[in-house]
Task: structure prediction
Amino acid sequence: MKQRYESKEFEEQYHYEGELGALYTSEKTQFIIHAPEADEVRLNLYEKYTDSEASKAIVMTPGDRGIFSSTVEGDCKNRAYTYTIVRDNKSVTAADMYSKAVTVNGEKSVVIDLKDTNPQGFDIDTYYKHRPDNAIIYELHVKDFSYDKNSGVREEYRGRYLAFTEENTTFEGKNTCISYLKELGITHVHLLPVFDFASIDETGDNSQFNWGYDPLNYMVPEGSYSTDATNPLTRIKEMKEMILALHNAGIGVIMDVVYNHTYSLDSVFEKTLPGYYYRQFEDDTYSDGSACGNETASERSMFRKYIIDSVLYWATEYHIDGFRFDLMGLCDTDTLNILRKKLNKLPNGEKILVYGEPWTAAKSPMKKGMIPAVKANIDKLDEGIAIFCDNSRDAIKGSVFIAEGKGFVQGEELEDEICDTVTAWYKGTKGFPAHSPKQIITYVSAHDNYTLYDKLILSAIDEKESDYVTYNPYIVSINKLVAAIVFTSLGTPFIQAGEEFARTKEGDENSYKSSPEINMLSWSRKNEYETLTSYYKGLIRLRKEFSGFNMTDSNDIAKNITFIKKEKGVVSFKIKALSETDRYKELYIIYNAADRINIVDTQGYKVIADDTKVYDEGIKVTDSYIMPPKSALILAR
Ligand code: CA
Result:
């Protein structure tokens, strides 16, 4: 099976470039499915979404390259359908892998006129309109955002797409939800899976929780975030309303895409062409490079086409501004590079972000000769494809695998790695020769592993019992130092939602199916940690203001960044502005991770950020400044 599906002969005989799915017009709908070597394919049409028996079954016409098609005259809008595929006298019924709409729980496909799903104003909305040149990314789960009763969002929208459309929400007089995101100043939200996933029963209640890394229908929004999952149009309309609301707030939308595996092997892919869409070992047993039960085969041409078709569909139909590839290391570099080129061809498409996790969860038998998109191969990826930099992440605050593991901020001697973090590892000496800092996502926390605050509680203090609730000024000071490093390093800064207000999951390291209460953003905690939130807000403003952070050329980096001090616990450097019109010509940045004070000669500079806050206007100081332990200082002239 593996040998045959990876052969040139199979690809030449069966690769199909045309459009697939239910191609709708009000006069007729053309159904096209790619199912090579099926003995028969039938199109089943249903009267009601809930019907288990089709009212009509049409034997489809076989064509070239494994295609079966059928044209149904008349208006098929909103009609449910499935396919029955017969091989060796065995028949299976499956939804369409090219479904653009589905019934509840993604069971049947639905013919749709996408024009019916556009909210008012969506026709003039675009994915690039609000896209700034330099992104600051905020990683967010739809349910986490507004599930808290203190979110200020009306109850029927809490935990759902429409929560993003509620403006001027507050808790105790302070902004929450979308009003807060505007105030914070981030440029993009990166949403955890919002395509249709399997782990939540869409007929069940809102208290179910899952991150959603279990794809069912790749080209359809998840139903449980809509107000009515039984109406196939609702989830599409409401997801578009969410995107429009974010765009209107000046915020881009990035989708987390999980093409590396499917919920189970009992999938539309396996039913349509058994074995083709998944990788196997030499003995034809299925591999599991995702550690989620299976792994897909990006290098086989019809799955490569599928990935590209679906990403382009989200970009054009839903105006998505970026894509984050889960376990990108399971994808081959050719697929990603082709995708990047196709995105670039869209109007202003080069501004659409593409980045991913440059690793796999287990060994993968990717076809020989293909190059996996892992960190070591970053130079084989187009410059417009970035990676999460675990080197920076772990150097700053310690390993994600050892709870008490320390990084630079807790006092480990990792000054060299912090210098590399600042320059986004541009020298390429550490085994991943990036073309430019544009290829590096600089971050310390994401949905996986401990929240930053929990990690610091576990690693920076020696307590018998961890206290995540009581305000801990020492941990907050370290958190500020961490944030200062992330926002003053090259690469694209990325934070987990709530990192800026000491988000805790009370030590829950892997909350993918924990309660919504453990996972949700606590809007009262946001108010409680306001000094920390303001610090992040100030750093975000500074990041946008100072052109030096946007350096992408290695010659510029060598010329414009000068390291001043590198000794135990202290790293400092000066960074020049790239633009003449900047407010400041140069910043002088000092990180003090030591347990002692650090005295800095400040002659000729003013302080624009210290251990307490980031200042709107700089403050003058005497010729020297005493930095407290565990703090950052940003000077400017
Ligand atoms: Ca679902």
Summary: The chain has a mean pLDDT of 96. Residues 139 and 575 are 28 Å apart (CA to CA).
